[in-house]
Amino acid sequence: xxxxxxxxxxxxxxxxxxxxxxxxxxxxxxxxxxxxxxxxxxxxxxxxxxxxxxxxxxxxxxxxxxxxxxxxxxxxxxxxxxxxxxxxxxxxxxxxxxxxxxxxxxxxxxxxxxxxxxxxxxxxxxxxxxxxxxxxxxxxxxxxxxxxxxxxxxxxxxxxxxxxxxxxxxxxxxxxxxxxx
Length: 181
Description:
It contains 7 helices and no strands. By secondary structure, it is mainly α.
């Protein structure tokens, strides 16, 4: 059996899908904790002034898992929940680890009163990398949903974007909109 890291690498390269991961609720729990820790760390680095970071990232994680459960249930694929969620959480952890070194570069841009003069070439380059990682993340997430739901890539992409937008609206409503994010 291929190692978990090799399977994750292939998922990130859109060569494999969630069905190639082991069915392991324990591994899902470990991935959820790792994702929670990574999201917490990234949020604290990027938005140090945000209150209730742990509550916010915990709610986002629960919302993500809940939306995948409801979506898979609606498509009558509930048995795929553990592997689909595991794939998404492992991908979240991988992308969070990839962007963590970029976050301190954004610090001048996240301060209140930041001006264009404070934005360095390194921050501009880091922004481009951040956007590239974001696009790659969306493609990988759509690929995972395509595999899990047995749909084409475009509908999977639209479903993923709808999930993200809906969760951001819900989190914004709960945590106070732009000021809470």
